[in-house]
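Q: I'm writing up a methods section and want to include an example of the input and output format. Could you take the sequence below and give the corresponding predicted structure tokens, formatted cleanly so I can copy it straight into the document?
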Amino acid sequence: MNLVAEDARPGCGDASALATHPGDAGTDTCDRDLALCLLYQEQNTLMEIDEALQRIEEGAYGICEMSGKPIPIPRLEAIPFARFTVECQSQLEKQSVLVRNSFPSSLSLREKEHDDEEAEDSF
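A: Here is the clean output for your methods example:
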């Protein structure tokens, strides 16, 4: 009976192993990453709202920062801090994807270096 009671204490036997299970650590990391992502999104939204209030004071609210055209009212109702028309926002997002895709990953660089080394060794 004493053996069972001793094993149930924190830091003894399997009880401590469960607290440091790799699956638990992975879940904790995922939860932390999600919380940080949500915090970043909230901070970004507050910054966008502050900037929209500044544009109201300057008389530039509702004007696309890229094209200079008025942002349609339905868009402003959906996203009150919108800075661009739908068309300009779409163009910016496409450019962002192109920029991200134009940088090769470190894996593809390593593969290219490996292929180059093999080509040199064959001579």
